[in-house]
Amino acid sequence: MKINAELVLSARQDKAWSQDELAIVSGLNLRTVQRIESEGTASLQSKKAIASALDLSISELDHEEPKTMTKYEYKTLELPFKFGIFKQGTPDIDEALNAEGKDGWRLKQMVLPASSNMGQSEKMIAILERELVE
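-> structure tokens emitted (134 positions)
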């Protein structure tokens, strides 16, 4: 499990302990202490031992991922949509969407026209999104 390696390192340094001394006090192998500090991973048993040795609560050692909010931009793509006896002129939707996909756009929603115009030509709208890269 992921743990807060920076807290382990700073708490050990506050006590002026070497990694070897922390290993002795916690009852862990030196290599385990080194891995915890460098990779931020530990078993539950190791986490408990480190917390006890450094006078920390187990929850203080929990690693928290920084919260990020993904931002998107949106656009619409109008495609002719024919139904009934006039549907032969409808474009290849896969081709149109794959062309947009090459630029990073993905289909979010497809809005189809209501079929009340007695088979007349209408437009369908593809709502596309892509992640903003900052």
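The chain has a mean pLDDT of 88.
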